[in-house]
């Protein structure tokens, strides 16, 4: 944090206090464009992974009746995390690359005339990757919250004539909300600190905020990197605080 | 086997030990140093040793083992990422963790400015007069507009006095970066950086994610055609030169010219191997690896010239092991180390000294020795060593406007 007020030199920095690192950043169009894009990606990922995550959690918690199948399902969600992050990402080339499985399948089924470049090194592919990388963090807490619900509440809703959907919407979803919000916090913090997906799947040409901080540090521009990191921390804390307020976790957990 | 009780090594205070382990903890690659700090200093203090730091392509276990076998000087190497080399060294590594660093030419100036180096006497370098002239003779062919690498090698005093008797760095390995491409995907041979911006390859190009690469290639392209005159030089551009290059790159990006930016060596191999891209600005070992996998990958001989670089031995201002550093530099000029790095395309600055050893080493072509293939024009897409040495578009350096260049490069990346 202190570094962000120091002055950069070719060998690193010296401790002459300056605010120019902040003014340079805070007036730079590129930086705010990156912030806006990062928040946009975050919003899309949160929306999509909430829909997918709540559906999967509901399926695992309510539809699957056998205990060990349910446990196995939840365990399977976290299997990918056993493999190193970078290896997980590199497996996307044989799946979604020009000669990858998806393109081969689509061309053989005559849906595409020739392999498409859309599935890798594009913004949509990056967003899709982020959703599938982090959706497990929504499923997990939501699942546990749903399992904790008192069965009597569900029976009461049924006895009062509520349809399964009505029960889900008016009883289960509000009670599972703290779980979902915990998932949102996990996902937000991870996306705001993710500097690899944007490069390995996104192709590096539509960077997220954490990636630009990393890049400055790589080329030894520590003061600028620190200043950007400070802005990133403020954004992260603001989002986490906002979400906590929304969930009123201290009351519900 | 005798079990020795663990004891405090002589000549090593607790404080020094803590300092060593603290620095070692800074980098994962520093584990060998940590081990050395724990066990290696039980010899008397005057025993020479060599502790070196650098990237994985020059700090090589077989080279260090052979060096120890030939000279009797114990050697430990620490591999770190390119971006970590200078920070780890300046933040204290030069004081008590390492004797030498296998620095890249562009890193010399910041290391000197930080007061972390001591000069090496030219008279101590056995094969100095066999070094290619581009490194040691002022105005030799192949130097760039700023006199690199000659001006990076000698101390200011040695250049000003004309004595040329002291250097900051002893060059040990060098090469030129250019473009790599798949002949089957681009449909022929390419000989200019202009191919990277050519609309017929739109969406098939990858660029290295560095502000020191593509912008210079843009300048080299348009200086080559006579359409642009730099105010600075290609390697050390002015702000206007930077703006010209970045504005051009942004325009080409908007037209969909570039598929991705690459950062990682392994990732770069994959994208060319699988044909995700048809051409890229590359490092030679990337292209050699793709070719070794049986794909028609060619390393371009570019008419505008190469982006040249060299690595060499620099000596810590605080090192008590001057003689070990000199011995290590001399060892790099002989045959063993040049043969070790030859199949990456990397060359020695003393080809005449290493020739015999290279003639006894293998190349990717069965029946062609490493000398003929890599140094004598026997490789299909490769000229002779003198030919390559004379084709510099610029030598790798940190420009005076690095910070401005980096912020404009971010504009390109994020636009």
Describe this structure in words.
The complex is a heterodimer of chains A (about 250) and B (about 425). Chain A is mostly helical and about 250 residues long. Chain A has helices at about 20-25, 30-65, 65-80, 85-90, 90-95, 100-110, 125-135, 135-150, 150-160, 165-190, 195-200, 210-220, 220-245, 250; strands at about 5-10, 10-15. Chain A has a single domain, classed as MetI-like fold (Orthogonal Bundle). In chain A, about 70% of the residues lie in helices and about 0% in strands. A two-stranded antiparallel sheet of chain A has the order 1-2. Chain B has about 425 residues and is of the alpha/beta class. Chain B is built from 20 helices and 13 strands. In chain B, the strands form 2 sheets. In chain B, strands 1, 2, 3, 4, 7, 8, 9, 10, 11, 12 and 13 form an 11-stranded mixed β-sheet that branches. In chain B, strands 5-6 form a two-stranded antiparallel sheet. Classes of the chains: A mainly alpha (about 250), B alpha/beta (about 425). The interface of A and B includes residues 34, 94, 215 and 216 of A.
SSE map:
The complex is a heterodimer of chains A (253) and B (415).
Chain A: E1 7-9, E2 12-14, H1 20-26, H2 29-63, H3 67-78, H4 85-90, H5 92-96, H6 101-108, H7 123-134, H8 136-148, H9 151-159, H10 164-192, H11 197-200, H12 209-218, H13 222-247, H14 249-252
Antiparallel strand pairs in A: 1-2
Chain B: H1 14-24, H2 31-39, E1 50-54, H3 61-71, E2 75-79, H4 82-96, E3 100-104, H5 108-113, E4 117-118, E5 120-121, H6 133-136, H7 150-153, H8 156-161, E6 166-167, E7 170-182, H9 183-186, H10 194-197, E8 205-208, H11 214-224, H12 239-254, E9 258-262, H13 265-273, E10 279-282, H14 284-292, E11 297-299, E12 306-316, H15 322-333, H16 336-342, H17 351-359, H18 370-375, H19 385-389, E13 392-395, H20 402-414
Parallel strand pairs in B: 1-2, 1-3, 8-9, 8-10, 12-13
Antiparallel strand pairs in B: 3-12, 4-12, 5-6, 7-10, 7-11, 7-12
């Amino acid at each position: 944090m202190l570094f962000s007020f120091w002055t950069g030199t070719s060998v690193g920095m010296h401790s002459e206090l300056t605010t120019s690192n902040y003014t340079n950043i805070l007036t730079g169009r590129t930086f705010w464009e990156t912030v806006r894009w990062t928040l946009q990606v975050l919003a899309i990922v949160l929306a999509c992974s909430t829909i997918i995550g709540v559906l999967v959690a509901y399926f695992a918690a309510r539809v699957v009746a056998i205990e060990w199948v349910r446990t196995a399902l939840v365990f399977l969600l976290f299997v990918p995390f056993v493999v190193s992050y970078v290896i997980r990402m590199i497996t996307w080339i044989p799946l979604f690359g020009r000669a990858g499985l998806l393109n081969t399948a689509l061309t053989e089924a005559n849906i595409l005339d020739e392999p498409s470049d859309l599935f890798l090194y594009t913004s949509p592919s990056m967003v899709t990757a982020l959703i599938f990388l982090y959706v497990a963090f929504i499923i997990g807490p939501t699942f546990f919250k749903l399992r904790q619900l008192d069965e009597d509440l569900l029976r009461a809703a049924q006895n009062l004539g509520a349809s399964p959907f009505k029960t889900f919407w008016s009883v289960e979803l509000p009670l599972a909300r703290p779980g979902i919000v915990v998932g949102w916090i996990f996902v937000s913090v991870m996306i705001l600190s993710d500097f690899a997906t944007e490069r390995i799947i996104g192709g590096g040409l539509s960077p997220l905020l954490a990636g630009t901080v990393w890049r400055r540090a790589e080329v030894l521009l520590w003061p600028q990197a620190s200043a950007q990191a400070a802005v990133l921390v403020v954004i992260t804390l603001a989002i986490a605080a906002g979400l906590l307020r929304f969930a009123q976790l201290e009351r519900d957990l | 086997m005798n079990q020795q009780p663990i004891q405090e090594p002589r000549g090593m205070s607790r404080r020094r030990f803590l300092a060593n382990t603290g620095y070692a903890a800074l980098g994962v690659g520093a584990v060998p140093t940590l081990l050395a700090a724990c066990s290696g200093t039980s010899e008397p203090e005057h025993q020479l040793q060599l502790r070196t730091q650098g990237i994985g392509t020059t700090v090589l276990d077989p080279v260090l083992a052979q060096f120890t076998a030939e000279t009797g000087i114990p050697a430990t190497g620490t591999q770190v990422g390119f971006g970590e080399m200078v920070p780890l060294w300046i933040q204290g590594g030069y004081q008590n963790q390492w004797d030498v660093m296998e620095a890249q030419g562009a890193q010399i100036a910041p290391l000197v400015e930080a007061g972390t180096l001591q000069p090496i006497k030219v008279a101590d370098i056995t094969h100095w007069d066999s070094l290619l002239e581009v490194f040691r003779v002022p105005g030799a062919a192949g130097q760039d507009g700023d006199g690199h690498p000659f001006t990076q090698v000698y101390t200011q005093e040695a250049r000003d006095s004309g004595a040329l008797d002291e250097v900051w760095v002893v060059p040990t390995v060098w090469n030129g970066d250019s473009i790599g491409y798949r002949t089957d995907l681009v449909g022929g041979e390419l000989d200019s950086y202009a191919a990277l911006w050519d609309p017929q390859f739109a969406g098939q190009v990858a660029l290295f994610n560095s502000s020191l690469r593509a912008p210079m290639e843009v300048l080299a392209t348009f200086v080559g055609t006579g359409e642009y005159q730099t105010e600075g030089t290609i390697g050390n551009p002015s702000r206007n030169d930077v703006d010209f290059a970045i504005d051009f790159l942004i325009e080409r990006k908007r037209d969909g010219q570039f598929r991705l930016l690459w950062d990682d060596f392994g990732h770069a191999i994959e994208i060319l191997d699988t044909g995700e891209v048809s051409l890229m600005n590359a490092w030679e070992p990337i292209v050699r690896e793709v070719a070794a996998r049986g794909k028609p990958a060619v390393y371009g001989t570019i008419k505008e010239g190469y982006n040249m670089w060299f690595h060499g031995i620099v000596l810590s201002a605080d090192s008590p092991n001057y003689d070990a550093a000199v011995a290590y530099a001399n060892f790099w000029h002989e045959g063993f180390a040049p043969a070790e790095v030859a199949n990456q395309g990397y060359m020695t600055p003393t080809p005449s000294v290493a020739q015999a050893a290279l003639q006894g080493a293998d190349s990717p072509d069965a029946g062609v020795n490493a000398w003929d293939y890599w140094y004598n024009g026997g490789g299909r897409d490769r000229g002779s060593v003198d030919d390559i040495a004379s084709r510099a578009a610029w030598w790798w350096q940190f420009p005076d406007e690095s910070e401005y260049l980096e912020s404009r490069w971010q504009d390109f990346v994020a636009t």
